[in-house]
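Researcher: Following up on the earlier apo prediction. This time include the ligand. It's fe (ii) ion, with the SMILES given after the sequence.
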Amino acid sequence: MAQSTVESKNKKDINNGKIPAKETILSPRFYTTDFEAMENMDLSINEEELEAICEEFRKDYNRHHFVRNSEFEGAAEKLDPETRELFVDFLEGSCTSEFSGFLLYKELSKRIKVKNPLLAECFAHMARDEARHAGFLNKSMSDFGLQLDLGFLTANKDYTYFPPRSIFYATYLSEKIGYWRYIAIYRHLEKNPDSKIFPLFNYFENWCQDENRHGDFFDALMKAQPRTVKSLSQKITIGGSTFTHPIFDYFHRFRYFLNNLPLTSKLWSRFFLLAVFATMYARDLGVKKDFYNSLGLDARDYDQFVINKTNETAARVFPVVMDVYDKSFYGRLDKIVENNKVLSDIANSSDGNKVSKTFKKLPKYLSNGYQLLRLYLLKPLDSKDFQPSIR
Ligand SMILES: [Fe+2]
Ligand SMILES: [Fe+2]
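Model: Understood. Below is the ligand-bound prediction.
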């Protein structure tokens, strides 16, 4: 972490006093997708629900919510240096992920506007919300004399390509997990006001409702997906070159059909649930652990609560969900956290050269891979038989 801070400071000099986000394997990703396939989606199966959700977006419930009050004055100075560093780190990560949502939704709304106006409007409303969230976080960062250079970030960040279906899975989960994360922190601080280290947390209750609505939108969008579509795309990109021919449309349709088979959907559901849960658990119980402690939260209890709730919520739309109640589930995730701790100790140790460090790390990487594989193969819960308390 120390090294990254130095890196940020160096970049700060060449970047007009604004800091770009630190790049780690667990940082929020920036996504891009197949816009042509998106604009050609036939949503008629669930258009009514999507229209209702869009109407909710139009009401813009949080229009006047994100206004800073006098509580922010001098709040930054009250934090001790250690808590300050942890909190700034939290602000930076949250701001980047909110901004990543903004960029994706904004781009989608722009690109599909002509052919798919309803979808485009929904994305535009969501981009509005995410811009507000990112801006509000960035404003808090300026209380600490820092600011994320969002323009720099947009231009310099690598974009990960995901096909539309994967985008739906991944963004649905990140919105719902965002909802549970924010509401869990809010409720905890409501009961323990002494742990409220910054007034930002007062805004989480209404804020998380935005994320909940965004998640509901993807829920409706996934339900609108028929097995086959009229047309997808006549383009195909191989090794960076794009080729256009009507035959590629059949290829995409076939791929789409395969992707929508019940078995494929089940395998993807498990993959995305596990990827999102394992990433969050490893990060929160690893580098972010002290931040949660500073709020008086136990990172393990907090994450398990958020994962269980997100898993329950996902059962409304995913055909299967993870069996988080199996005792091996958190046992294996804890093993990964333990391995990561050893891995970072090896990486930070001064003795040994690169090769010997790699050899020391190898068993831990293999163990992580094994735990993830076993978690993936863990018999899932069928969403139909799963009756969570909150649905
Ligand atoms: Fe957001
Ligand atoms: Fe969101």
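Model: The chain has a mean pLDDT of 86.
Researcher: Noted. I'll compare it with the apo version next.
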